[in-house]
Amino acid sequence: MHSTLSFSQATTVPTTNYAFHSQSPINLRFCGLRREAFGISILTRSSSGRVRLSTRGRSKRTSASTGNNGTPPKSFDYDLIIIGAGVGGHGAALHAVEKGLKTAIIEGDVVGGTCVNRGCVPSKALLAVSGRMRELQSEHHMKALGLQVSAAGYDRQGVADHANNLASKIRSNLTNSMKALGVDILTGFGTIVGPQKVKYGKVGFTDNVVTAKDIIIATGSVPFVPKGIEVDGKTVITSDHALKLEFVPDWIAIVGSGYIGLEFSDVYTALGSEVTFIEALDQLMPGFDPEISKLAQRVLINPRKIDYHTGVFATKITPARDGKPVIVELTDAKTKEHKDTLEVDAALIATGRAPFTYGLGLENINVVTQRGFVPVDERMRVIDANGNLVPHLYCIGDANGKMMLAHAASAQGISVVEQVTGRDHVLNHLSVPAACFTHPEISMVGLTEPQAREKAEKEGFEISVAKTSFKANTKALAENEGEGLAKLIYRPDNGEILGVHIFGLHAADLIHEASNAVALGTRIQDIRFAVHAHPTLSEVLDELFKSAKVEREALEALKVG
Predict the structure, then answer these.
(1) 443 annotated ligand-binding residue
(2) Residue 390: domain span
(3) What pLDDT score does 437 carry?
(4) Looking at the structure, do residues 367 and 218 belong to the same domain, yes or no?
């Protein structure tokens, strides 16, 4: 999910006197999760520049001593307290320890948050199954490869167990990685009781109060359920329930056609369900670049057992009971008049997510949420009701609403740790990629074409668009997966990359060359000289950048430089 982003010029943050250790782990991350979450060995670089391998079992020293987890100031219990142990909190905690901070993380539910337990991780397990089922079920695809496969089937409980086991494994590894580095995991719900002071505890038990020089709020989000919809967790469900895959309905209505709705439509149709999308806006997939949405609809929606209603609200949904089906009442989004009534076996509410900020004690520090989101500036510093910065308090991830993606939360957390240890850092959210793991996948970074044209008109410059097809890529054709498109939106006057959108095989992996280019400020006239292995899917982007037409002045500037 995306929200409108605003940026301002950097200002200097006062430096502080923290001891930095000469030996620090090289940061290697997987989709927002630290490498340690997968139980993989850690590469460390010594002060001499040499790289050595250490495992959790053998390593007796990390960047902050496992035994004492840094040295806290005498006046505080910790250098840093993080409220919430999801991907954002985990990333911030591990980076803080690397920087020598004594760190604690408070978690009232389970380590891993939404991503690991009810989001990214288990959903990818289900999508892995749906992808294989689609291949095995496609007689045309198999025949084109010279393969003969008997009828494909699946065991529902086995599929559900795969998703649950993966979540359990990653959750356990996250917990162990923090314990191994000496992060104190404090169990209970965290509440801010005053400046640099937090209480935590479980219901029915005495609260504990701890202090810290700096505090990060990383409490994440929960599924958003509109008024009039009754969720029973069985026949009317959210993504939290759907990931358990307790049953596969013959016909399911999915309310919302964004990332969550699209991915679940991929899963359910692969497992045999018929799907009906209910979308409040006039078109499906409203958050994507319009050209990508149009192609994705032709490939992901039209050939499958999917129909849809656009421009309507699901104003009332009643769960199945007493032998009756799930009742979905549709209302015209413009006239507000009743339009239709559906009777289905199940309904999935995929209308986005809402920040989980209730009970944080924000009123104790004069902070008022905006639609539940904690207001922050470009450095994730919390802003109070008077528009002033709250000293030593930060908020990252879904709770601030800047960009509701797990890896964005992790990046924000790392950015905050950089700041509190004396190095100013502002995250460029336009460089953060996003992906939808359908088959084929959709990925993007930066602006859509309409957004870019609006920006160009406002700021007085021209934009150009370049495109390449997967049909011209040798590797895609070898896989018999030539359906796909890559699109580049850029400034021809200076070669600046404004946005890249990909629909096709492994789009979620391909987008990172573009997102890194945006993050590093690399221009088209530079990146077009990069060499790509042949034959690989990466050549889709190679051809994309080479096809862009940059004005002669920009090329001449490159020669001069």
Answers:
(1) no
(2) 78-223+354-421
(3) 98
(4) yes
| Same domain assignment for residues 214 and 363 | yes
Residues 433, 407: Cα–Cα separation, whole Å: 9
Report the amino acid identity of residue 534. H
Closest of 109, 79, 90, 113 to residue 188, by C-alpha: 109
Q: Is 279 annotated as a binding residue?
A: yes
Q: Is residue 460, in this structure, part of any structural domain at all?
A: yes
Q: 219 a known binding residue?
A: yes
Contact 215, 392 (CB under 8 A): yes
405 marked as binding residue: yes
367 and 346 share one domain = no
Residue with tokens 């509190």: 420
- The 10s digit of each residue's pLDDT in 449-494 is 999 999 999 999 999 999 999 999 999 999 999 999 999 999 999 9
Q: Which residue, 421, 451, 473, sits at the end of a domain? A: 421
CA–CA separation, 511 vs 39, rounded Å? 26
Helix ranges, 9-68 (H): none
* 404's tokens: 């509701």
Could you tell me the sign of the dihedral formed by the alpha carbons of 155, 271, 130, 352, in that order?
negative
**190 belongs to an annotated ligand binding site:** yes
534 is catalytic: yes
The SS3 assignment for 207 reads coil
In a domain, 401, yes or no: yes
Helices 120-137 and 156-180, packing angle to 10 deg: 140
- Of residues 338, 439, 532, 534, which has the active-site annotation? 534
CATH of the domain at 322: 3.50.50.60
Residues 85 and 184 grouped into a single domain: yes
Could you tell me the CATH number of the domain that includes residue 544? Answer: 3.30.390.30
387 plus 444 within the same structural domain: no
Domain membership of residue 7 (yes or no) is: no
**Number of domains, the chain:** 3
Residue 407 assigned to a binding site? yes
Strand partners, 238: 349
Distances (CA, A) of 248 to 143, 234, 473, 558: 28, 11, 37, 57
130, 185 Cβ separation under 8 angstroms? no
pLDDT band at 7 (very low <50, low <70, confident <90, very high): very low
pLDDT, tens only, 173-201: 999 999 999 999 999 999 999 999 999 99
Does the residue 89 lie in any domain?
Answer: yes
Q: Does 342 belong to an annotated binding site?
A: no
